[in-house]
């Protein structure tokens, strides 16, 4: 080995002469490798998310008997809306779907209306106990929903809104609020205060400055926050199960009938639960990333 | 008429920091007033109070004879250029400039006409359709200026509008800005920490320190007769030289001892006999010789810095240093002996304790 190594040391001067070139090539190779690794990881992550979605979708649209086939075929042989029709026409599904939408919309509106001003205050004003407020608001999420839901159910019965969309919507608003406040707060921090003040020197009242300058710039973020609430409400099952009996939201209905329902029903339900969230995030995505993508600060 | 009167204006932050301390200042109609001072001296806070973005703890602010202390910015008939420019990123250049006019509910045709005219004034016509992100720093600065002047305010406020530009652009814009403001003929307040900007732009300069206005006057007056040693060292490049000397002698023959040399002193220093005073002198007011001259201060050259138009020398007198300017053909060499003759009428005398001016000449 040592003998073989020695002759190799002879052409050293020539090697150093071409070393810069080799270094560049090595760096380029490392770069390519790094990029390949990055894409591979991204592809894996995407697969991790997409594979179940794909399987659920495929199964939801295959004939009912094919649902039980094993092993699963990756490419569906037959297409059928039979399974979906079975699910949609099942008792209570359409009603609870409607309930889910209404609950999610009410939660979205309420949490935006309540949370946005709070986020704005956190972002713009220094007041006593601001940091404590920030912490406390998050700690509300530390309460187990079970502990919250039962006294709430009692209160809602007292108020006469138990087993209505309002009880669930109020609960979901409460669940979403900490995030709405913190997310909108960080969005408003991102809108320079100078812009607001400039608007005020140009004839705006503080409210007009907010509407004309801050709001348009914060809109993508606010949209994201409210969509977040929508998805949270759409998927929330526990509080919805406790606070409703007949006026079920879709997740509550699916959960309560899950054990007793056949596989096609479950796949169809899963698909049904999945799609609105996907569509909304897909639609909002452009808004989230692109709209003021060229904003400079 | 838009004279600005500041009457005992005071602002304290966090209950302890006096950002602006009892400022008494009147800015005449159509005057270009520069607020000059180091960072943290309260100049921006003072301007923000005039704009209505900050509420004073004490004192009154009047614009054009109207007390505006309790009015919001939009009711003060002011316009402001922010240091960050604050160009609205979601609006085009045109809409940025039109913003204030639209708030006034001006007719569309009128808005377009005024925006066009303002854009021509600041050479922005080709960029009216662009967004802030598509503009250079200099162009953004122009948008900010156009947006302010299109309002035809009775007071124009500018907060370090040139500080975010690179050195070359700053020089060009300074001259442009001076021309523009002269044409507009509005009362203007301009905040800067750059003493050259202050001297070159202002009709009058108010020098601030620790929340107070320490001196105000025409740029030349402030430069030539600094009221305190602080003003002397803050304005001018290089700053004014300050040398310590002891006042000696009796009435009639008052002298200040500077190393081995005794300098004739004005009678006003009589009260300081036996004590130390500060002698202030600017670099360009000292004549230097390389040979012995009667009545000159003996010194030694320490550093020679050729600056193109002149030489900047650092000289040592006794144990004190001072800077002086000479012509480029002056035979200066490090460690060479030097004889200095300060121009007698440019000597300024300061009390080392209060730093106030005692006498001039």
UniProtKB/TrEMBL annotation, chain B:
<dbReference type="GO" id="GO:0005524">
    <property type="term" value="F:ATP binding"/>
</dbReference>
<protein>
    <submittedName>
        <fullName>Glycerol-3-phosphate ABC transporter, ATP-binding protein UgpC</fullName>
    </submittedName>
</protein>
<dbReference type="GO" id="GO:0140359">
    <property type="term" value="F:ABC-type transporter activity"/>
</dbReference>
<dbReference type="InterPro" id="IPR040582">
    <property type="entry name" value="OB_MalK-like"/>
</dbReference>
<dbReference type="InterPro" id="IPR003593">
    <property type="entry name" value="AAA+_ATPase"/>
</dbReference>
<dbReference type="Pfam" id="PF17912">
    <property type="entry name" value="OB_MalK"/>
</dbReference>
<dbReference type="GO" id="GO:0055052">
    <property type="term" value="C:ATP-binding cassette (ABC) transporter complex, substrate-binding subunit-containing"/>
</dbReference>
<dbReference type="Pfam" id="PF00005">
    <property type="entry name" value="ABC_tran"/>
</dbReference>
<keyword id="KW-0067">ATP-binding</keyword>
<keyword id="KW-0813">Transport</keyword>
<dbReference type="InterPro" id="IPR015855">
    <property type="entry name" value="ABC_transpr_MalK-like"/>
</dbReference>
<dbReference type="InterPro" id="IPR012340">
    <property type="entry name" value="NA-bd_OB-fold"/>
</dbReference>
<keyword id="KW-1003">Cell membrane</keyword>
<keyword id="KW-0472">Membrane</keyword>
<dbReference type="InterPro" id="IPR027417">
    <property type="entry name" value="P-loop_NTPase"/>
</dbReference>
<dbReference type="GO" id="GO:0016887">
    <property type="term" value="F:ATP hydrolysis activity"/>
</dbReference>
<dbReference type="InterPro" id="IPR017871">
    <property type="entry name" value="ABC_transporter-like_CS"/>
</dbReference>
<feature type="domain" description="ABC transporter">
    <location>
        <begin position="4"/>
        <end position="235"/>
    </location>
</feature>
<dbReference type="GO" id="GO:0008643">
    <property type="term" value="P:carbohydrate transport"/>
</dbReference>
<keyword id="KW-0547">Nucleotide-binding</keyword>
<dbReference type="InterPro" id="IPR047641">
    <property type="entry name" value="ABC_transpr_MalK/UgpC-like"/>
</dbReference>
<dbReference type="InterPro" id="IPR003439">
    <property type="entry name" value="ABC_transporter-like_ATP-bd"/>
</dbReference>
<keyword id="KW-1278">Translocase</keyword>
<dbReference type="InterPro" id="IPR008995">
    <property type="entry name" value="Mo/tungstate-bd_C_term_dom"/>
</dbReference>
């Amino acid at each position: 080995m040592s003998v073989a190594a020695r002759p190799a040391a002879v052409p050293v001067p020539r090697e150093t002469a071409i070393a810069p070139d080799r270094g560049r090539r090595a760096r380029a190779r490392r770069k390519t490798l790094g990029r390949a690794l990055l894409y591979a990881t991204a592809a894996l992550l995407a697969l991790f998310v997409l594979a179940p979605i794909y399987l659920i979708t495929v199964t939801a649209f295959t004939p009912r008997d094919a649902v039980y086939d094993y092993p699963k075929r990756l490419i569906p042989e037959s297409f059928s809306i039979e399974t979906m029709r079975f699910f949609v026409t099942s008792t209570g599904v359409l009603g609870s779907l409607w309930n889910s939408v209404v609950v999610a919309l009410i939660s979205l509106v309420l949490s935006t209306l309540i949370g946005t001003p709070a986020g704005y205050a956190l972002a713009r004003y220094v007041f006593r106990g601001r940091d404590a407020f920030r912490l406390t608001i998050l700690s509300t999420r530390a309460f187990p929903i079970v502990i919250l839901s039962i006294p709430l159910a009692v209160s809602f019965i007292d108020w006469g809104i138990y087993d209505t969309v309002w009880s669930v919507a109020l609960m979901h608003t409460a669940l979403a609020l900490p995030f709405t406040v913190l997310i909108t707060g960080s969005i408003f921090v991102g809108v320079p205060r100078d812009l607001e003040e400039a608007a005020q020197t140009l004839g705006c009242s503080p409210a007009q400055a907010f509407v004309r300058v801050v709001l348009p710039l914060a809109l993508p973020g606010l949209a994201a926050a409210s969509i977040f609430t929508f998805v949270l409400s759409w998927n929330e099952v526990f509080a919805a199960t406790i606070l409703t009996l007949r006026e079920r939201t879709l997740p509550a209905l699916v959960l309560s009938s899950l054990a007793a329902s056949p596989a096609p029903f479950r796949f169809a339900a899963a698909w049904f639960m999945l799609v609105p969230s996907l569509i909304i995030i897909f639609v909002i995505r452009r808004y989230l990333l692109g709209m003021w993508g060229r904003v400079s600060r | 008429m838009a004279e600005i009167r500041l009457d005992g204006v005071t602002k304290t932050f966090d209950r302890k920091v006096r950002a602006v301390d009892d400022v008494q200042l009147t800015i005449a109609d159509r005057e270009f007033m520069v607020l000059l001072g180091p960072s943290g001296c309260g100049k921006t806070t003072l301007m923000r109070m005039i704009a209505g973005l900050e509420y004073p703890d004490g004192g009154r602010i009047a614009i054009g004879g109207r007390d505006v202390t309790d009015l919001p910015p939009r009711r003060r008939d002011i316009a402001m250029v922010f240091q960050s420019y604050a160009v609205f990123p979601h609006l085009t250049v045109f809409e940025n400039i039109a913003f204030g006019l639209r708030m006034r509910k001006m007719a569309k045709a009128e808005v377009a006409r005024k925006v066009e005219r303002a854009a021509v004034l600041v050479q922005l016509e080709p960029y009216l359709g662009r967004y802030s992100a598509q503009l250079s720093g200099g162009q953004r600065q122009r948008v900010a200026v156009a947006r302010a002047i299109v309002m035809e305010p009775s007071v124009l406020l500018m907060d370090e509008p040139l500080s975010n530009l690179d050195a070359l652009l700053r020089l060009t814009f300074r001259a442009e800005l001076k021309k523009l403001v002269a044409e507009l003929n509005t009362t203007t307040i301009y905040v800067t920490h750059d003493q050259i900007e202050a001297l070159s732009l202002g009709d009058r300069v108010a020098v601030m320190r620790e929340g107070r206005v320490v001196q105000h006057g025409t740029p030349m007056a402030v430069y030539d007769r600094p009221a305190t040693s602080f003003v002397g060292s803050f304005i001018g490049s290089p700053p004014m030289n300050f040398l310590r000397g002891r006042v000696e002698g009796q009435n009639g023959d008052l002298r200040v001892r500077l190393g081995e040399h005794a300098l004739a002193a004005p009678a006003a220093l009589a009260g300081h006999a036996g004590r130390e005073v500060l002698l202030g002198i600017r670099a360009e007011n000292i004549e230097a010789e390389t040979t012995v001259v009667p009545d000159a201060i003996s010194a030694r050259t320490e550093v020679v810095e050729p600056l193109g138009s002149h030489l900047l020398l650092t000289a040592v007198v006794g144990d004190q240093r001072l800077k002086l300017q000479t012509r480029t053909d002056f035979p200066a060499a490090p460690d060479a002996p030097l004889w200095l003759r300060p121009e007698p009428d440019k000597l300024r005398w300061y009390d080392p304790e209060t730093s106030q001016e005692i006498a001039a000449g």
